Amino acid sequence: LITPTAQAEPVKRLAYRIREAAESCGMCERSFHSLLASGDGPPVVRLNGRTVLVPVDTLRTWLTERARASEQNGTDGDGQGDGAGQGDDKEGRASD
Q1: Distance (Å, rounded) from C-alpha 86 to C-alpha 65?
Q2: I need a labelling partner for 30 at 20 to 30 A (CA). Which of 17, 50, 78, 86 fits?
Q3: What does each C-alpha distance from 38 to 13, 19, 27, 31 come to in angstroms?
Q4: 39-78 confidence digits (pLDDT tens)
């Protein structure tokens, strides 16, 4: 006789590695690293010399705050309006 075993609940992630955090925001890893380097990214937790984690709740709060700020400023989150400056050409290059 086989008895059903209790299904274990999946473990909820507490934090993402940088690549996972970037993917969860729909960004490439390089752009996410740029945000972190400039101080515009979410706070991170450094566990040792190599392991850097972004807590899920912190990432969610950071992204929500950026979205709210971009709505208030009428920007796409980078402070540049609709993403294409008035002096930009079709390729997004600034013109003089």
Answers
A1: 26
A2: 86
A3: 26, 17, 16, 11
A4: 999 999 999 888 999 999 999 999 999 999 999 988 665 5
